[in-house]
Structures are given as C-alpha cells and as structure tokens.
C-alpha cells in the first residue's frame, strides 16, 4: 500500500526491512522484526501480507519483461545522485510503525555505519547511501509491490523460502505454465544467478541505472545493490540448482552489506547537512553528473 500524506510525502511499507522469517536472523537485536504469521488484527502484518500476495499474483515473466521495456529506456527523468537522494525525503518508509523517518535518513544511517567499520572503503560507504535509490519509481506511478519487498527469480519453480509460500502464487498464471513451473524452468543447471530474470523492484532498477550511467563501483558493490533483497537465496538457501562458484562471492558481498541495511533502524539520526560535503565528493568520484533514469 502506498499512501499520499497531507504534506505530499509518499508512505511505503518495505517488508524486506521489517519482517524477516529466516532462521539466520533469529535473536538479532532488531525489535521491529516480526514473523510472517497471519494476523488480521495486526495492521502491519496485514499490509505486508497484502503487498506480497499482490506481488506474487502479478510478478510473471511477461510482467517483468514489460517493466524492463518501460524502465530500461532510461527516459523518465534526469537527475544527479544528490537530487535523487533529496527526492527520497518525500518517501516515508512505513517499515517502522513508531517513526516517520524519510528514506534519506536510513540511507545516511547505513552509510555512516559502514563508514565506521570500513573507513578506507569509500565506495562501500556510497553503496550504503544510494542502495534504495531505485525506490524513485514510486513517484512515477508504480505500485508498492513492484518497488519494495523481497525479490526472487521468475521463469522457474517458486523457491520454498519465498515468504507466504505457494499459497500466495495461486493466482499467478506462471504457476501453471509448464515452461516456467519446473525446477529449472527457462534456465539451465548452474547458469549462475546473474543469468536469472529477477522479479522487478528497486534493486534491479538501480543496478541497471548504475550500469547504464557507467558508475565506477567495483563489481562487489553492484552485486550488493542488485541482490540485497534476494532473501530466498542468500538467507533461505533456495535456488541451489543455478549456483556457480562465483555466486558464493556474490553472496559474501551481499551478506556483508545486509548487516548494515537491516540493523541501522534504531541508530541515531545523523546530521545530514554536515555530511553532504563528504558524500558529494564520493558521488563525484564514482557516479558524477546528471544521470539518466
């Protein structure tokens, strides 16, 4: 659900950051994590359930191809990274029902936590700052379920660890298409996750924007952007049939990043204005000028 507030901000619930069912997150110090059990009395759980059922009903191979045709022309707008980040001030993430912090606050929290631990890896810090920029699609009419949330490949049998499971895919026509509903579907064994067609969302979009605009990040940083919401794989262990040796390196990079994405929500709110000069230099170094989006 996407809500236009009276102050013209857009509220979005990103369930990838709110609710994590995987065992590897058990006991982690983030009180906002909840389970995915059904509870009609809990409005947060109900919104998350509705988001995923909408996503899993509509996210077909043809739908993803259509979104790629629409967004990968990179003709929607032109903007610097800084201006796009400032635009996120109008996007309030409803992941935490107790706060109304804009996405840009989470962006700086993530970047600053990375900066503390990796002071010499400025590219990693910048990845933390921009990792949610693909959410700008929300300002161009895209529904929440194809902007946020966990990602997964289309064109093959749904992974066992996709949240809400097979029941949420009952109305998806690809569930009954023999080209797509087998273990390998339209892919080959050990083809590598980079050759899978991922569900459409802010991860894939930003990855493509960075590639199109010749960003100077190392490959590791681009992996972090592209797969940080692919929880059924890197947290749930699904899709082993497609993996290659390289995918282990990709997984290491994603897990390295995700600890900062997930566990910054309770961090102190940074002084964004004082931090801009530092991050503007990083933007100029790695992804300068006006980008095509």
Automatic annotation (TrEMBL):
Top-level taxonomic group: Eukaryota
GO BP: any one term: inositol catabolic process
Cofactor note (record): Binds 2 iron ions per subunit.
Residues given in the record as Fe cation binding sites: 106, 131-132, 202, 228, 261
Alphabetically ordered keywords of this record: Cytoplasm, Iron, Metal-binding, Oxidoreductase
Cytoplasm in keyword set: yes
Binding site for substrate: 34, 93-95, 135, 149-150, 228-229
UniProt KW Oxidoreductase keyword: yes
Pathway annotation from the record: Polyol metabolism; myo-inositol degradation into D-glucuronate; D-glucuronate from myo-inositol: step 1/1
Listed GO CC annotations: cytoplasm
Enzymatic reactions: myo-inositol + O2 = D-glucuronate + H2O + H(+)
InterPro entries recorded: Inositol_oxygenase
Compartments, as annotated in UniProt: Cytoplasm
Known cofactor(s): Fe cation
GO molecular function, one term: iron ion binding
Entry EC number(s): 1.13.99.1
Pfam family, one: MIOX
Family: Belongs to the myo-inositol oxygenase family.
Protein name: Inositol oxygenase
Lineage, broadest ranks: Eukaryota, Metazoa, Ecdysozoa, Arthropoda, Hexapoda
């Amino acid at each position: 659900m996407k809500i236009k507030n009276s102050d013209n901000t857009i509220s979005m619930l990103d369930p990838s950051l709110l609710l994590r069912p995987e065992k590897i997150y058990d006991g982690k110090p983030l009180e906002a994590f909840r389970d995915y059990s059904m509870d009609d009395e809990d409005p947060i759980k109900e919104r998350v359930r509705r988001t995923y059922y909408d996503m899993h009903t509509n996210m077909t191979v043809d739908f993803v191809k259509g979104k790629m045709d629409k967004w990968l022309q990179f003709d929607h707008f032109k903007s610097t990274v800084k201006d796009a980040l400032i635009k996120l001030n109008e996007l309030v993430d409803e992941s935490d029902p107790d706060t109304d912090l804009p996405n840009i606050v989470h962006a700086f929290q993530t970047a600053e936590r990375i900066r503390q631990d990796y002071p010499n890896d400025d590219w990693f810090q910048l990845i933390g700052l921009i990792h949610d920029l693909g959410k700008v699609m929300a300002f161009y009419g895209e529904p929440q379920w194809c902007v946020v949330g966990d990602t997964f490949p289309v064109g093959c049998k749904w992974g066992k660890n996709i949240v809400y499971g097979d029941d949420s895919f009952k109305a998806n026509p690809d569930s009954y298409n023999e080209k797509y509903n087998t273990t390998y579907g339209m892919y080959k064994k050990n083809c590598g996750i980079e050759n899978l067609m991922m569900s459409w969302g802010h991860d894939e979009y930003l990855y493509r924007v960075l590639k199109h605009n010749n960003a100077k990040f190392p490959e590791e940083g681009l992996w972090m952007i592209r797969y940080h919401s692919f929880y059924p794989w890197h947290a749930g262990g699904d899709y082993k049939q497609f993996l290659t040796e390289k995918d282990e390196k990709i997984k290491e990079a994603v897990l390295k990043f995700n600890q900062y994405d997930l566990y910054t929500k309770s961090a102190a709110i940074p002084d964004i204005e004082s931090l801009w000069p530092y991050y503007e230099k990083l933007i100029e170094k790695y992804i300068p000028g006006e980008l095509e989006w």
